[in-house]
Design goal:
The complex is a heterodimer.
Chain A lengths: L3 H19 L4 H5 L3 H6 L6 E2 L1 H4 L1 E8 L1 H22 L4 E7 L3 E6 L5 H11 L3 E7 L2 E6 L1 H26 L5 E5 L3 E7 L4 H9 L4 E5 L13 E2 L3 H8 L7 E9 L6 E9 L4 E2 L3 E8 L5 E7 L1 H13 L5 E5 L2 E4 L11 E4 L5 H13 L6 E9 L1 H54 L3 E2 L1 H30 L4 H33 L3 H31 L10
Parallel strand pairs in A: 1-20
Antiparallel strand pairs in A: 2-8, 2-19, 3-4, 4-6, 5-6, 7-8, 9-13, 9-16, 10-12, 11-12, 14-15, 15-18, 16-17
Chain B lengths: L15 H24 L6 H4 L1 E8 L5 H10 L6 E5 L4 E6 L9 H12 L5 E9 L1 H29 L2 H24 L6 H31 L5 H33 L2 H31 L13
Helix pairs in contact in B: 1-6, 3-4, 5-6, 5-7, 6-7, 6-9, 7-8, 7-9, 8-9
Classes of the chains: A alpha+beta, B alpha+beta.
């Protein structure tokens, strides 16, 4: 009895702390507070999960092998250039498989020099076996690993940049395991656009057109979907080192769309990693175009390439699609180029974003993609809340009807339970999901159960003729272990779910585990203190 | 004092053979469902099986047959459709074993845009899950189930006795299997949320069993003259009103959730609702009689006075 005041104070303190913690989760209430108070309070509370406010959750895998392939291809091109520079004649430098380069040297006498050159300039390749004029080199495994690791880091960085520029509130981008990236974008209004933005490889290449005769046999345009057929038809006829790429055209007048084939050199004259900036501007026909500016090295190379190819046509290729193929009329030394195509303003904006943020080092494979539209989120929240209110009201009414005054006390304990749970969740900046709401409802169900166990035990004691005070104490005492056992077993389930659940399930587990702890507290401190308070005067009867 | 039941003295134990028969049939059904999952012919949700689900909300009613034809015309004939007519929503599911690079969700959306230019719709939700992730989720769910069951058996065995732990675990397995069996009969999808519900109901049903066992143990220590048979019967009768009141309150919570909680929560709440009812039944009619099946339990008593 002596400790009654202390327990009341504890209860009060818990309630006040919970309310303070929970405040930021109610924006309306929070905003109406004076500024001084707002500063003291944390400004972050519960955030809503994707299922409640809409958004995207994706798991992407970086195709590491492709990253290695791309890196080896770059080395191949660099080696070719170097060999040409040193006037060492070769029949070809080829990539075999993922990570091997084969070099066919023309003259026996050059072999030693080529080998020396490789050892010096390409230390990450080791000689595999060489027979006569055929040299085989392989990328060292540790360098392959390094390329893979940096591909993932670069992909993370690039995605982060793109999303930053796209503008999403509180995005979550994190590495998952060795080569996976998890992305969460809550509240995105146009999910498809965001997804395209993330997954676009954005490899910008400038490729010279191959003006061989065979290109004259190309039809001026092909129907959509017939591109592969054309490629097959001409395979073997086009020169080695060239490929057919298409420009996708949509006629604004009649809405028809088709593809224009181009024969281009496989090796890019210049690639887009030397870009300094990309901006949307308005073209001659009032259409959106993207202007790119090279950095100083890029500008220099662009200058050289255009100077050497005046009069020829150069295709601007993004992710394997031709956007335009203008003729180089004169040497361009300013380091500027323009990408035009049939863009909408949004598309042009997004293209500028991905070009500024840089290309992905390798394509990304989607492993998981969950998208919730904003309307469903609102639906769910309305239904979830309404149902919670109905279910809660039913239980509260039942408790009062069945247990009278004691039922009312139990209801107060339940309210405290709910406040405590909201406070704890807000304090942890947890994310509230639909299963999380289910978890809260379930916790309240367990809170009711604790009180029912206690009350039934008290009733039994009363039936046996115990005086009220003894009956209450015996009821609490005897129910205690039962309730602890019941809660611990549920806690075990909750912990298992927490350890192995993902996303929303984890949210459910968190609410369940927190709720169990708070439940025990409200039942054995909250309810008990009120009964003890009433028992200070000797009660003849108890409303239970 | 308002009471649902007064003091009862129902002979629950006398009915155990009927109960065992009923439970036997239900559990057999559950086992079929469990094997179905292992062998891959159960109705697994796309989060376990991998695949794509797209839910569209139309601004005017669209017949499900028309929708099916539209998808067939765009070579998506393996799609399963489900409609929610009151909300004008259609859920389209395609289970695939290939990767999701074919962008099936995009194909579905484009098919509807092309076939029904006059029907506006918004994409409520779309989810695509690759088979590798589905496999991992399946493993994780299995681990979570086994881990929690082992943890629970250990806890009950420590707090009570080994035989109580085993009986409680069998009763819990019983409940999970029965609900799984009912879902199998109703051809409901086993999704991640349903598995969560199964785990939660395992916890709930265990709570019920623990409450009954607790009372039986208490009686065992005090009433030395009665037979085990009577002690168990009395124990069940003494906690009966608590059992019913609690079940009633939980049902009060779950019925609104099942009816109006929205399509996402529906299957989840239904599994819990079934589970709570089965769990109440099993703690009375399955778990307690199982204590008697223990060799030598009928004549002598459990370790009294411990």
């Amino acid at each position: 009895m002596k400790k009654l005041r202390g327990r009341f104070l504890l209860l009060l303190a818990v309630t006040v702390v919970s309310c303070i913690l929970a405040l930021p989760s109610f924006p309306g209430l929070y905003q109406s507070l004076p500024d001084g108070v707002k500063h003291i309070l944390s400004h972050r509370g519960l955030s809503l999960g994707l299922d409640l406010q809409g958004g995207i959750h994706m798991v992407l895998e970086v195709e590491e092998d492709r990253a290695v392939e791309i890196a080896v291809d770059r080395s191949r091109k660099a080696l070719e250039d170097l060999l040409a520079e040193k006037a060492l004649a070769v029949d070809g430098v080829n990539r075999e498989g993922l990570n091997r380069l084969t070099i066919d040297v023309q003259k026996d006498s050059d072999v030693a020099e080529v080998q020396a050159l490789l050892d010096e300039a390409f230390p990450s390749f080791v000689s595999e076996k060489s027979s006569g004029t055929r040299l085989e080199y392989e990328l060292r495994p540790e360098d392959a690993e390094r390329i893979k690791t940096s591909a993932i880091n670069q992909a993370l960085e690039t995605i982060r940049n793109r999303i930053d520029q796209f503008g999403v509130a509180e995005p979550l981008i994190q590495r998952l395991g060795l080569n996976q990236i998890a992305i969460q974008l809550p509240g995105v209004q146009d999910p498809q656009r965001a997804k395209d933005l993330i997954q676009k490889t954005a490899l910008l290449e400038f490729k010279m057109l191959d003006e061989s005769k065979v290109a004259l046999d190309f039809p001026p345009q092909v129907e959509k979907g017939q591109e592969e057929k054309l490629r097959q038809e001409f395979s073997g006829k086009i020169p080695e080192g060239s490929e057919i790429l298409f420009e996708s055209v949509e006629e604004e007048l009649d809405g028809s769309n088709y593809s224009i084939p181009y024969l281009v050199k496989k090796d890019a004259a210049l690639i887009g990693d030397l870009l300094q900036d990309a901006r949307v501007t308005i073209g001659d026909f009032n259409e959106p175009i993207v202007g790119v500016t090279f950095d100083s090295k890029g500008a220099q190379e662009f200058d050289l390439v255009t100077a050497a190819n005046v009069g020829k046509r150069m295709a601007i290729v993004l992710d394997g699609k031709v956007y335009s193929a203008p003729r180089i009329n004169e040497r361009i030394s300013g380091g500027r180029a323009v990408i035009s195509g049939t863009f909408t303003t949004n598309e042009a904006n997004d293209l500028a974003v991905v070009l500024r943020a840089g290309a992905l080092p390798a394509p990304l494979k989607t492993l998981q993609d969950l998208t919730v539209g904003p309307s469903l989120g609102k639906d769910s929240i309305d239904k979830g809340l309404r149902t919670t209110v109905i279910a809660g009201a039913l239980v509260l009414i039942f408790m009062i009807v069945y247990y009278r005054l004691s039922g009312l006390i139990a209801n107060m304990a339940l309210a405290l339970n709910l406040i405590g749970l909201l406070g704890a969740l807000s304090g942890l900046n947890a994310t509230l999901t639909l299963p999380g709401i289910a978890g809260i409802i379930l916790t309240i169900g367990m809170g009711v159960d604790s009180n029912v166990l206690i009350f039934e035990r008290i009733r039994e004691e009363l039936r046996q003729g115990s005086p009220v005070r003894l009956a209450v104490n015996a009821g609490f005492e005897k129910a205690f272990l039962t309730i602890v056992d019941a809660h611990v077993t549920t806690l075990i389930t909750g912990l298992a779910l927490f350890l192995f659940g993902t996303g929303p399930i984890k949210g459910f587990a968190v609410t369940l585990c927190l709720g169990i702890g708070i439940n025990l507290f409200t039942a054995f401190v909250g309810t008990k203190v009120v009964f003890d308070f009433m028992n200070r005067r000797k009660l003849e009867t108890l409303s239970i | 004092m308002m009471e649902i039941l007064g003091k009862t003295s129902v002979d629950f134990m006398g009915k155990r053979n009927i109960a065992f028969a009923v439970s036997g049939v239900l559990v057999a059904l559950g086992l079929v469902a469990a094997f179905g999952i292992l062998l891959g012919w159960a109705n697994l949700g796309i989060d376990f099986a991998g695949g794509t689900a797209v839910q569209l909300k139309f601004d005017q009613p669209l017949g499900i047959e028309e929708a099916r034809k539209a998808l067939q015309a765009h070579s998506l004939s393996e799609a399963e459709l489900q409609e929610f007519p009151q909300d004008q929503k259609i859920l389209i599911r395609v289970k695939t074993h290939t990767t999701i690079e074919d962008e099936i969700s995009k194909q579905i959306i484009e098919a509807f845009q092309a076939e029904f230019p006059n029907h506006g719709f918004v994409v409520d939700s779309s989810s695509s899950i690759g088979p590798t992730i589905g496999k991992k989720l399946q493993e994780d769910a299995l681990i979570a189930i086994l881990l929690s069951l082992v943890g629970i058996i250990l806890y009950v065995a420590v707090r009570f006795e080994f035989r109580f732990g085993v009986a409680a675990a069998i009763a819990t397995f019983h409940d999970v299997l029965v609900v799984l069996g009912i879902y199998f009969l109703l051809n409901k999808e086993i999704t991640l949320l349903v598995v969560t519900a199964l785990l939660t109901l395992a916890g709930y049903s265990l709570t019920d069993t623990v409450v009954v066992f607790d009372r039986i143990r208490e009686n065992l220590r005090r009433r030395r003259r009665e037979t085990v048979f009577e002690i168990i019967n009395n124990g069940i009768n003494q906690v009966l009103s608590r059992t019913l009141v609690t079940t009633l309150t939980v049902v009060l919570v779950l019925v609104p959730l099942t009816l109006w909680g929205g399509e996402v929560l529906h299957d989840f709440s239904l599994a819990l609702l079934l589970g709570v009812i089965v769990g109440t039944y099993s703690s009375i009619f399955v778990a307690s009689p199982l204590l008697l099946l223990w060799p030598g339990a009928e004549g002598k008593l459990l370790s009294r006075g411990r």
